[in-house]
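Input (PTS sugar transporter subunit IIA):
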Amino acid sequence: MKQAKIISIGPKAIDSHENILILFGEEVTDTLREFSIIQELDESEKLVLKTGSQIKFNDQTYVVEQVGASANEHLNSIGHISVIFDKSPKEDLLGSSSVYVSPYRLPDLSVGDMITYVE
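Output:
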């Protein structure tokens, strides 16, 4: 298990017409910050998300359906994944940092909220 605290939500990070959240660690560029949710990850051991893992936004639980090829590496190194709240395609069409989850609805988020990654 690994926890993160949301420390910033960019003005264009949450769009009710798009079922995606882009998460980054604190070292994100200013250009990406506008479209991202910035998380402060704890310094625990490395995390490996896989099918069946869970991502919890406070008390809202999501089940991982598909993990992109570089998602775990990016999450552990720069705090980055794109969480997609939609059915996973046969191939990861939106990039290798994508993690597809269900249910297919965006969580309610605020600065200070906690994200829990459960393997």
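The chain is about 10% helix and 35% strand.
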